[in-house]
Amino acid sequence: MRAFARPKVVVSKCLEFGACRYNGDRITDATVARLNDFVDFYPICPEIEIGLGTPREVIRLVVDGECSKLVQPKYNRDLTENMISFSNDFLQNLIEVDGFLLKSRSPTCGITDAKIYAKIDNSPVVRTGSGTFATQIQSIYPSKPMEDEGRLKNFILREHFFTHLFTVSDFRIVKQSMKISALMNFHAKNKYLFMACHQENMREMGRIVANHKNLSIQEVFDQYEDGLSRLFAKPLKITSHINVCEHVFGYFSKQLTTGEKQHFYTLLEQYREKKIPLSSVLVVLRSWCYRFENEYLLNQTYFEPYPEDLIAISDSGKGRALS
Ligand code: SF4
């Protein structure tokens, strides 16, 4: 079993940590509760921080051209400047965090699905978008892992978020060392994970580590970190996983029986057809790593990109077959 660095994650306080919703509620959330054993959470409620009490009158987003304003209809108050100012101050004075886990649909914390109304008083929803706090996070930390608890009910999105989060957290520790040897080791043990993300980017990152241009260590780490954020820009594809599984299979294929090979290709086909999860294929590959004592492969993060105990969280049903 791998040892994992503990990611530092800013979380909306109403998710498990505080009864700070507009109606005085606290939300129980299985993902946040489970993650609490593995990450250091930094809970924040921006609405409380700008002086709105609990309980409080409802606030909402209203259209402001291409952007939106944060308003409190009951008092005809515009809270936009206040919230932007708090958010920038908070985010710019933050310790180095690895990611953000926010409350969905909130006009403050929602990442993509906050309702935006036509006007401050009774009016229809014209579109959805980011809450005011979330918008500032996206602008200051565009490449950090960032999700909401609603989307994390989907297994694929959750797996992608966890993989990204635990990888950047591991990288943060490597970066603190500022040692090329530590970076080489990080790149080597992530080879197959990065190959599954984006093969060409993985190769480019290998060239950065090799440092043929004789860049300073700081430049090497900066360029590598840029590459890392590009790798995780999109969830991984089934075809990329199949490619990696075939690469790993290649280490053992000559030593396996015909029946074992057929079994592997049957599993791979079932995975391609979304009938079984990726983990069913990886269990077989990993057992061969042990059987043939392949330490290099056993060290690959691909087989355990985040703590196994986090896999057990129940799923919304959508996309379960993909991993
Ligand atoms: S969604 Fe954000 S602003 Fe609203 S109660 Fe939760 S933490 Fe506070």
Instruction: Name the average pLDDT.
Output: 94
Show unreliable segments.
317-323
Number of helices: 13
In this entry the ligands are: iron/sulfur cluster
- Number of self-contained structural domains: 2
Work out the number of β strands: 9
Order of helices and strands: EHEHEEEHEEEHEHHHHHHHHH
Radius of gyration: 22 Å
Largest sheet: 5 strands, mixed
- Give the overall form: elongated
Q: Please state roughly what percent of the residues sit in beta strands, choosing from under 5%, 5-15%, 15-25%, 25-35%, 35-45% or over 45%.
A: 5-15%
Q: List the strand order in the largest sheet.
A: 5-4-3-7-8
Quick summary of this structure?
The protein is an alpha/beta fold. It has helices spanning 30-35, 46-49, 80-92, 132-140, 155-177, 180-189, 191-197, 199-210, 217-231, 238-250, 258-272, 278-291, 295-298, and strands at 8-12, 40-44, 60-64, 67-72, 77-78, 99-102, 114-117, 125-129, 146-148. It binds iron/sulfur cluster (SF4).
Describe the structure.
This protein is of the alpha/beta class and 323 residues long. It folds into two domains: 8-152, no CATH class; 154-323, no CATH class. Helix content is 45%, strand content 12%. The protein is built from 13 helices and nine strands. The chain has helices at residues 30-35, 46-49, 80-92, 132-140, 155-177, 180-189, 191-197, 199-210, 217-231, 238-250, 258-272, 278-291, 295-298; strands at 8-12, 40-44, 60-64, 67-72, 77-78, 99-102, 114-117, 125-129, 146-148. The strands form two sheets. Strands 5-4-3-7-8 form a five-stranded mixed β-sheet. A four-stranded parallel β-sheet has the order 2-1-6-9, covered by helices on one side. α8 (199-210) packs antiparallel against α9. The site of iron/sulfur cluster has 12 residues, from α2.
